[in-house]
Each structure stands twice: as C-alpha cells, then as structure tokens.
Amino acid sequence: MKGNLFSAAAAAAVLIGAGPAAAQGIFVGHMADYTGATSDVGKPYGQGVADALAYVNSHGGVNGKKIEFETVDYSYEIPRAIATYKKWTGSQKVAAMQGWGTGDTEALVTFVAKDEIPYFSASYSGHLTDPSGKGTHGSKPAPYNFFYGPSYTDGCRALVQWAAGDAKKKGIASPKFVHLGDNHPYPNAPKAACGEYAKEMGFAVVPPIQYSLKPGDFKAQCLSLKESGANYAFLANTGGSTISLLKSCETVGVDTQFLGNVWAMDENALKAAGDAANGVVFVVGAADWKSTAPGMATVREISKVSDPSGNQYRPVHYMRGICSVYYMRDAMAVADKAGGVTGPNIKKAMEQMKDHVPAELQGVCIPSTWTPEDHRGTTTVFIYRANSKGGAQSIEKIGESVIPRKPEWLGW
Amino acid sequence: MATTSSALIPCGQYKTTYRKDTTIFPTPATRAVAIAALVLLCLAPLKIGGVELLGKYELNLLIQIGYYGIAALGINILVGFTGQISLGHAAFFGFGAFASAWLSNSFGVPVFWAIPLAGVLTTLVGLLFGIPAARIKGLYLAIATFAAQFILEDFFARAKWFTGGSAGTLAQPFSIFGYEISGDQGYFYVVLAYVVVMYLLGTNLLRSRDGRAFIAVRDHYLSAEVMGIGLTRYRVLSFGISAFYAGIGGALFGHYLGYVSSEAFTILLSIQFLGMIIIGGLGSVMGTLLGTAFMVLMPEGIGALSRGLGGVFPALTDGLAFVKEGAIGLAIVLFLIFEPDGLAHRWKMIKTYWKLYPFSY
Fold it and tell me: Is the pLDDT of residue B230 over 60?
C-alpha cells in the first residue's frame, strides 16, 4: 500500500538520521537566522561567522586542531533554538557556541551557565554583560555569555552623546528624544537605560513609538513621530523594518534626526532605502569594507571562502561576525595550552583578555577587555553617517565615542 | 463464545453489556500492548547493562511529543469531538506556561502544584473566550478565536506583572516535595505521567455522558438541542476543557525550557496544533498522539534526509530551512487530499488489512 511504503521510508530516514555523529575535535555550534524576522542582517553576519570558521580551519585551526562546526538556521524562533541547543549538548561535547538573537540568547543564559558552554552571541543586549549578577538594576547572572562589540545600550548612549553635541550646534534649546522599536527583547534592551541617559544629557524623553520588526507601512508611526515633535529618534529594529520606516517618514515629511542601532543601517539597507536614509547616524562595531586597516587583508581572504571572485561587497556586519569567531579562536588557543579546550578554560581565557585584538585582524576589531566581573568587551562606539543624494551613496565615519565603564551600568 | 478468541479481534459484535462496549482498549491484546509499551518507555531512558535506548536527543523529542500531545488532545476534544473551531489554541498554551511560571515565581507555589493550577487558570480563560461559541458557528467562530489569539498575545507582551513583558520570564525546574528534577531523564518521567493521566482522563471523558453530548453537538446540533442537550453549556464546557489541556501542556513546556517568552505562542503554533489533529485524525484520541509525533518528528526527519542526501543534492542542505517550512504545509495538504481521516484511520486500515488477510477486499 502506498501509505505503508511512505511511512516506512520516513521512519527509516528518521532512524538513520537520529543517530548523532560524535565529534572528535572541537565542536562549535553556530545558530543563524537566514529565513526569519531578522534575516536581512542575519545573513551577512552568519556568513561572516561561517566563513571565518572555515578559514580558521584551513589556516592552522586552534593550535593545529580543527574546529568542527554545524550551522543551523533557526528562523528566529526561540523554541527551535533551544531544541537545537539540546540536540547539540545531548550528542557531543560542545566547546562553545556562536549564537544570534536576543530572545534565544537570553533564554539560554541559564542553560549555558549550567552546562558551562561559552556563548558568543550577536545579541549585544546589556542584560548579558553581568557575569555575577551584581549589577544594580537587577540583571540576572550571565557568566558564560560573551559578545564582541559595544552593547546596545552603550551604542545608544554614544548616539545620545553625539545628538547632544549636535543639538548644541544647531541651537535647539530643549531637544526631545524618542525610542522607536518593536515590543520585543532586542529593541527593548536599551530602552530604559538609554532613556535615562538621555534625560541626564538634557533631553526631554517622549513616550516610545512601536514599529514592527517585520517590514510594513509605518506612516501611522511617522505621523505620531511628527506630532511628538521629537528632534532625535533612536531606531532599535533591524535594517529591513527600518528601511520601511524611513521611506514612510520621507513620504510623511518628518524632519527628525534618526539614530540607528548597530543593526539598523548598513550598506544594503542604504541601497534599499535610497535618499530616505540620507543623514541617518548609526553605530558601527568594527571596520567597514572600504577600510584600509592592515587586518582587512585577512578579511578579504576570508570573504573568498564564500565568494571566490573577491568582488562581493560585504556589509559592516560581516566584519563583526569574523571578529566574534577570532576572539573565540584566541580564547580556545589559550585554553588549549592551559589544559584543554573546555568551557571553563575558554571562559577564563576570555576573561584574561585586555585590550586584545586578534593578531590577524589589526585595525578591524576594536580592542576588547573582559573580566570575571564585567563582560562588556568594549565600550568604544564608532559613529557613522549614511549619505545618499540622488544615487550617490556612501557611509562615512563621523566620530568615535568611548562610554565610561560605570559599575551602575553593568547589566543594563 | 468470548473465551478462546478473546485476545484477538472478534469477527462480529459479541458484546453483551454497555460496560464491555465502552472499554478504553477494544481487546485484551491491545491493552497488553499498551501497557508493555508504557513499561518499555519507563525503562528506556535508564542505562541498563551499559545500553541506553534513549539518548538526550531522543528524550527531547519524546518530551516535545508529550506536551504538544496533551495540548493537541485538548484541541481535538474541541474540534474533533465537539465540532467547534479554534484558532487560538496557542494562546491558551502560552497562558498555561506563563501562569505556571507566575505562580511558582510570585507565590512560591511548588512547581508540582503550579502545573495543575495553571491548567485551572487557563480553563477560566478558555471559558471566557468560549462564550462567543455559544452563539456563533463556523467561520465566525474561527475569527472570534483568532481574536482571542491576538488579544492574549498582546496581553503577554505587555503585562509585565504576569509575563515579564516582552522579555519573558524564567520558569523554575520541576520539583516534587523539595526534590528537584533537573535534566531530560527526570523530566521525561514527569511528562510521561502527565500524558498517561491526561489521555486516560480524555478517553474517560469521551465515554461519559458529557463526552457523548459533545459528539452529539458535533454530529447534529439541532437534534442534540431537541433531545435536551444544552448547546451553550456544552460548547462553552468544551472550550474550557480544551483550555485545561492546553494549559497543562503549556505549563510542562514552560518548565521544560526553563524560560517562557511570548513570541513562542504565535498564530503559527495554533495552526500547527490544527495540523497535528488533522494529520492524526479528528475525533480520535490515538490519532492525536500519532499526529503530534508526525509533526514533531518530520522536521527532524527532513534534516536527517538532507544530511544523508546532501552529497547528491547540495541544494537540499542550502535550502533546508525552506524545505522544513514547506514540508509541514505540504504534509497537511497531502493528508487532506489522500487521507482526510488522518493517521488513525490509516492505522486502522493497516490493522484491518492484516486481520482480514488474505481476504482484504
């Protein structure tokens, strides 16, 4: 019977596949979002991580040992991320993980702490920066969470600093600040802390406006923005929805200065948004593709892993993915010499890094420091502006900000 | 008459009492097989003689089948047995998860009691959203439950006191009388116990007076009303009971993951629950479990298939995520075309074929 054969084949497939492969080397689990709500930025970052891991393997690995990695696209669905995590930890010894989103990273904080697996996320939520839970704002301990780059909150603070200077230059007496983002852990991460900092810097903080992570028509939100009279608006979503918002606001005619978080604007988003994105100031956490830093030679070699012609232009997120892998590799190399590539050893190695830049990536990654009490790798924020006038598009660095490492800002 | 062949499927209707007619298992053989399977499941996670039948990965899959199966039985009672429609089941599932976490975090209720209490709280919510069911049917009821889905989803994202807002909330691990059960092995037994209890309760419900009333409401509500079965009462009751099952399933889900967040309970999950019972068989308790197992194991099967065929069809590995998404929809469509009564019916056909072999025509 047809039904019989089909079900038998399916059962066989499940049974064959269910036997997990035991890893001999160093296993790194890589979770990416290639098809979900944040896939517009998840693709370049995930590509950077995958390419960097492949490149590390073909150029010496970790003291000669190869990194075995598996890339899983979890479509930004937290339950799938957790199921993947359980599958990996159930079938082999996981040395470390390269993760992605805020929702699943924050969900896995207790799991990775219990299983002692260092988790390098692409979520820069301030809530992940407090390893011992001693932060004054009730942050839960995240001892095994690391991320390369300035946190969302520090990025927002740097933009507020820039905006304060800009307001003074423009002579705006009492500037208004507003937070735009979806009601979701990732856009919400910097909302409270950044609002407080904006108040400290003399801004009047207007009630936040919500716009979905999924692209759509946001003219209603733009009208609210216009009515609120906000001078500076922080965009907390990723590029896809931000493009829609900028285009809607251009149609409505809003003259607010937009400040984008690290995922809100990149070269691809600039191309799609066109002149609507002119003047958007945003956070960048590593060198951009056009940089002439010595480390960019390595980055271009890594890019050839998935683009042999070497002609593809990589957006800013690609470099951060590479940096995330290389910091992990450096920690693994130290751990290997200190008794083996295990979770606690990698954590200890990460927490010994002081103003560290991977040797091959000089000038690409920002010097980062982690300590057992403070997992804010770097508080240096690069501020860029997007320019687009009649087809001529570019991004230029307009400043660099070093946010003070205040203890009361830990985990927040 | 029923002595020597009592273990086999009888070749006619030989039951002489109603009691014999409404047994849960049709024959002693099926009862023995079910009990044997249960014993096997109890022993499988243990390391006996150095052999562990179920590793962490398989336990994870079985636990998923367990809590989704409980919630799926809830929606099968509602859709398959009472003939209503609900597009808001994921919201009740989520409410159970949040309620259990809230009870154990805010009031210190031990998780052992928090799970059934969460089921009760979810029942109240289900009864509330089931009130429209008393008067509207079909597509309009679907939209009303659709509204319930979005209302509850928004409530989850905003009610910081209950759910922790959009950031979600941590759920404590399961503990019995102070002894904490951590790890998949222990939790597997918890979920197995709940599945057995909930499924027995469900089957019992369906052979009781209220269960027969549900089926009457489904089959011909006008006749049921004429006979004296209160339509309002039984429709709302059905919503309440299905919400109870969803709440228990959700609570088990929450305590398993250790973290509950509102984005796990979207309309897509509601549709997946409907998919589970359509594939498994509307109006069949065993079918619910089969359908849930199918929905949980299929993405894993496709992943395994792509790993095996990845060398021959590299496009399969690249587009795996798309294939997984598409496969669920394709499975639902194919089942509706070729096997609308679901896996339960297909299984019955297989058993009948072998029972009547070689005279299966």
Answer: yes
Judged by CB atoms closer than 8 Å, whether chains meet at B261 and A91 is answered as no
B 161-200 residues with CB < 8 A to A: 165-168, 170, 184
- Chain A residues with CB-CB distance to B264 below 8 A: 77-79
- pTM for the predicted model, two decimal places: 0.81
Q: Which residues of B fall within a CB distance of 8 Å from A191?
A: none
Looking at every residue in chain B, the average pLDDT score rounds to 88
Please indicate if any CB of chain A lies within 8 Å of the CB of B304.
yes
Range B95-109 average pLDDT: 94
Number of H helices, E strands in chain B: 16, 4
What phi and psi values does residue B170 have, to the nearest 5 degrees?
-85, 145
For chain B, which residues make up each domain, given as ranges?
Answer: 55-348
Chain A hits for B322, CB-CB cut-off 8 Å, are 35
- Chain B residues touching residue A127 (CB < 8 angstroms): 167
Chain A residues in contact with B254 (beta carbon < 8 A): none
Helix (H, G, I), strand (E, B) or coil at A177: strand
AA letter at A269: A
Cis peptide before B358 (omega within 30 of 0): yes
Reading the block at residue B12, the tokens are: 């006619």
Least Cα separation, residue B259 to chain A (angstroms): 6
Assembly ipTM: 0.70
Q: pLDDT, tens digit, for every residue of A196-215? A: 999 999 999 999 999 998 88
Q: By the 8 A CB rule, do A347 and A383 touch?
A: no
> What CATH topology corresponds to B55-348?
ABC transporter involved in vitamin B12 uptake, BtuC (1.10.3470)
**How high is the pLDDT of residue B321?**
67
Which residues on chain B are in Cβ contact (under 8 Å) with A34? Answer: 321
> Hey, what are B176's tokens?
């019995």
- Phi, psi of A129, rounded to the nearest 5 degrees: -95, 5
pLDDT above 60: residue B5: no
Q: Average pLDDT in the B93-113 region?
A: 94
**Chain A CB within 8 Å of residue B8 CB:** no
pLDDT of residue A48: 94
Residue B355's pLDDT band, with cuts at 50, 70 and 90, is confident
Residue B329, chain A, CB below 8 Å: the answer is no
Judge whether B110 is closer than 8 Å to chain A, CB to CB: no
Q: Do B304 and A18 touch (CB under 8 A)?
A: yes
d(CA A219, CA A250): 9
Check if B350 contacts A (Cβ < 8 Å). yes
Residue A24 is predicted with a pLDDT of: 54
CB contact B361 to A (< 8 Å): no
What pLDDT is attached to residue B48? 74
- Report residue A76: phi and psi, to 5°: 60, 25
pLDDT in tens, B163-196: 887 777 878 888 887 788 877 888 999 999 999 9
- Domains in chain A, start-ordered, CATH in brackets? 20-149+291-378 (3.40.50.2300), 152-284+379-409 (3.40.50.2300)
**Does an H or E element contain A137, and which?**
none
A391 Rama class: left (phi>0) / alpha (psi -120 to 50) / beta? left
